[in-house]
């Protein structure tokens, strides 16, 4: 491959090489920084970073050598561009990685909250039996009596979970929602034990937490 020294063709070739050098350098440094920041262990991160840098150099160095053999100033300019792209990647990597981590954490929280929302609705339906079913109301009056400590704690847990997630099908994005639902389930189980509700009184899935 050779470079033309004539006018617009030379300018177009240099622009294409500049884009290739800047892109390859930025990508190599960014992914190397990402590997070093990953929680896969020091050796794995260093090994990944080495191959990122190696791949970048395998592209950038031949391009700079080729440009230098045709026009030395072009090689110098591309070298300076590569250095600038590397610096930009180092400066931008922490912010970009933090955004990726935030999006990943948000997705994980959403998945947890979607599962928690289903458990929330199940717990509310289970509790409402004691309010709406005359048989349960008669057999277990303590479940409707806020003077009972366990029932009072249950009511507080219900309100806390509803403040975070409500009763809608769409789970909230607050990371505190799933733990609040778990506390609600625990409070409901404690209130049922205190009211004398046996295992036979449970209608629904197993209430043990995974």
Question: Can you walk through the features of this model?
Answer:
The protein is mostly helical and 210 residues long. It folds into two domains: 98 residues; 95 residues, no CATH class. Helix content is 78%, strand content 0%. The chain contains six helices and no strands. It is rod-shaped and about 95 Å long. The chain starts with 6 loop residues before the first helix and ends in a 15-residue tail after the last helix.
- Low-confidence stretches are 200-210
The level of helicity is over 70%
Round the Cα radius of gyration to an integer and report it: 31 Å
Tally of alpha and pi helices: 6
End-to-end span in angstroms? 62 Å
What's the domain count?
A: 2
Characterize the biggest β-sheet: none
Quaternary structure of the protein: single chain
Mean pLDDT, rounded to whole units? 82
Estimated share of beta-strand residues: under 5%
**Helix vs. strand class:** mainly alpha
- Morphology call: rod-shaped
Order of helices and strands: HHHHHH
Quantity of strands, as a count = 0
Provide keyphrases for this structure.
single chain; 210 residues; 2 domains; 6 helices; rod-shaped
Helix and strand arrangement:
Elements: H1 7-37, H2 42-70, H3 72-132, H4 134-139, H5 149-165, H6 177-195
Give the structure's gist in a few sentences.
With 210 residues, this protein is mainly α. Helix content is 78%, strand content 0%. Helix 1 (7-37) packs antiparallel against helix 2 (42-70), helix 2 runs antiparallel to helix 3 (72-132) and helix 5 runs antiparallel to helix 6 (177-195).
């Amino acid at each position: 491959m050779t470079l033309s020294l004539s006018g617009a063709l030379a300018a177009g070739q240099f622009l294409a090489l500049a884009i290739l050098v800047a892109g390859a350098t930025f990508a190599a440094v960014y992914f190397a920084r990402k590997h070093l920041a990953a929680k896969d262990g020091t050796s794995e991160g260093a090994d990944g970073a080495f191959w990122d840098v190696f791949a970048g150099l395998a592209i950038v160095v031949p391009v700079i050598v080729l440009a230098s053999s045709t026009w030395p100033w072009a090689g110098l300019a591309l070298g300076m561009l590569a250095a600038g792209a590397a610096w930009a990647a180092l400066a931008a990597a922490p912010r970009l990685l933090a955004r990726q981590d935030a999006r990943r954490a948000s997705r994980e929280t959403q998945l947890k909250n979607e599962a928690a929302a289903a458990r929330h609705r199940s717990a509310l339906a289970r509790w409402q039996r004691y309010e709406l079913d005359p048989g349960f109301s008669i057999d277990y009056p303590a479940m409707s009596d806020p003077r009972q400590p366990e029932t009072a704690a249950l009511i507080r847990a219900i309100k806390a979970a509803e403040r975070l997630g409500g009763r809608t099908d769409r789970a909230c994005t607050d990371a505190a929602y799933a733990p609040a639902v778990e506390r609600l389930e625990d409070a409901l189980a404690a209130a049922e034990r205190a009211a004398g509700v046996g295992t036979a009184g449970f209608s629904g899935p197993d209430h043990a937490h995974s």
